[in-house]
């Protein structure tokens, strides 16, 4: 079990790619990353040919690094417009081996502490099963990059500094197997106290608290119960700390949704511990008349829970595909073609959430995706609930002619469905098949595909 210390040493994490060629190093004396400037090969494999960064310095000014790699490709820039308290925490990427020139980087995804993805590169030609996918999670803010180049970008790593969640140094409490419930009592000054119902491997569990609690129960207590513990578990925490050093509000996130905010949100400086693919098993902190600081203990998620399957629905033949089981669905992209783009579903791609990590599936159907808009769900408030499937004849075989993808916000807010191909948006008109099961959420997809179209689709589902 790991304790996330509330200290700020500068550390490094890497490597995506290889140490081929010359090393470059932008240093770690910056306070933030503000812009990414990059070039892609104008043809061929479309590797990331060069990359540069614009940093913010301690004096408030900016500094632009040298260009790492070889200029001369298609130049693009990615300004990173950060919100209040937002910064880069995570980098992942796909590396591909060029038979002639060795390993190169095809795609990089940067993630902020608010789980916002920033992707550069070209996914064309990536084989998600064969090409190397590497994650570089940190438990802090990325303040610099280093790497290697030779003809193109060959490798990249990051410098980061740990960020405190709130307040100053925190006192240590015991470590447990998990958190079952939380009680928070906010007041005008901040969070008067917080209590945790922890799993100590006994039936009744054990209670721990932090703040000004005298043992009595107040009706104003705000309770969070993880009703399906241990299937539901905490993954991250955020909040605001005031100028007086007191925590003003707290929000807790689990693999099933968001709990909070508790207290006066927006009052003070924002802090966030993002999910790092682990589950929170306990808390520690400092206290006075109110809660002053908070930190977490984490451990790797020990196992995946079983899922059921529906489908696949559509035709047969072609090649099987399976994205596997994930935590949730974060987005999707569908391409269509034919008369008015309604004759067939060319391809479908899903973006998944794996406890805070973004995992992009491969395009299923036509490999080279030249069109189609990504639909991003307002995660964690919006989720994909069902897919209606219409089948018909495509190029002389049975395949999918239309899809109706439906999402919902919260527990009851209806959202207009997304129609693709030959289908109807009227929810009262049944599809040929419907991927949906009450009391379950969709956590992955599978099916069959041809070279230019989607043949069938099914889903992995897990109980809510």
UniProtKB/TrEMBL annotation:
Residues 10-148, 153-300, 307-463 form the Jacalin-type lectin domain. It comes from the Eukaryota. PROSITE patterns: JACALIN_LECTIN. InterPro entries: Jacalin-like_lectin_dom (IPR001229), Jacalin-like_lectin_dom_plant (IPR033734), Jacalin-like_lectin_dom_sf (IPR036404). Keywords: Lectin. GO terms for molecular function: carbohydrate binding. Belongs to the jacalin lectin family. This is Jacalin-type lectin domain-containing protein. It comes from Eucalyptus globulus (Tasmanian blue gum).
């Amino acid at each position: 079990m790991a304790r996330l210390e509330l200290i700020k040493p500068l550390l490094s994490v890497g490597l995506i790619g290889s140490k081929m060629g010359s090393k470059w190093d932008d240093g770690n004396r910056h306070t933030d990353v503000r812009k990414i400037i990059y070039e892609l090969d104008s043809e061929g494999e479309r590797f990331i040919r060069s990359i540069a960064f614009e940093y913010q310095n301690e004096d408030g000014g900016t500094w632009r690094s040298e260009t790492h790699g070889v200029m001369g490709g298609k130049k693009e820039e990615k300004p990173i417009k950060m919100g209040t308290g937002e910064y880069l925490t995570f980098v992942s990427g796909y590396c591909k081996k060029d038979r002639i020139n060795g390993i190169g980087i095809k795609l990089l995804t940067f993630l902020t502490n608010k789980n916002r993805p920033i992707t550069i590169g070209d996914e064309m030609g990536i084989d998600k099963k064969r090409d190397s996918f590497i994650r570089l999670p940190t438990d802090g803010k990325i303040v610099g990059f280093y790497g290697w180049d030779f003809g193109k970008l060959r490798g990249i790593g990051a410098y980061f500094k740990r960020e405190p969640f709130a307040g100053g140094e925190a006192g240590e409490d015991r470590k447990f197997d998990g958190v079952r419930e939380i009680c928070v009592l906010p007041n005008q000054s901040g969070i008067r106290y917080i209590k945790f119902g922890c799993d100590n491997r006994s039936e009744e569990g054990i209670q721990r608290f932090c703040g000004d609690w005298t043992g009595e129960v107040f009706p104003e207590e705000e309770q969070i119960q993880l009703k399906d513990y241990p299937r539901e578990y905490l993954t991250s925490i955020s909040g605001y700390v005031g100028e007086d050093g007191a925590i003003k509000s707290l929000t807790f996130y689990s693999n099933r949704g968001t709990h909070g905010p508790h207290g006066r949100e927006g009052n003070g400086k924002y802090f966030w511990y993002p999910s790092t693919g682990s589950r929170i098993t306990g808390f520690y902190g400092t206290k006075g008349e109110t809660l002053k600081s908070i930190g977490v203990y984490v451990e790797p998620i020990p196992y995946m829970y079983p899922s059921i399957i529906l489908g696949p629905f559509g035709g047969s033949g072609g090649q099987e595909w399976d994205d596997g089981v994930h935590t949730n669905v974060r987005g999707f992209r569908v391409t269509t073609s034919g008369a008015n783009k309604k004759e067939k579903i060319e391809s479908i791609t899903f973006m998944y959430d794996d406890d805070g990590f973004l995992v992009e599936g491969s395009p299923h159907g036509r490999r080279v995706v030249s069109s189609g808009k990504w639909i991003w769900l307002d995660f964690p408030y919006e989720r994909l609930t069902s897919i209606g499937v219409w089948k018909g004849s495509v190029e002389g075989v049975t395949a999918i002619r239309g899809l109706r993808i439906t999402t919902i916000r919260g527990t009851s807010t209806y959202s207009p469905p997304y129609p693709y191909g030959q289908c109807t948006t009227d929810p009262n008109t049944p599809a040929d098949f419907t991927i949906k099961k009450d009391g379950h959420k969709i956590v992955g997809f599978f099916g069959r595909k041809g070279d230019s179209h989607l043949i069938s689709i099914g889903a992995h589902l897990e109980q809510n």
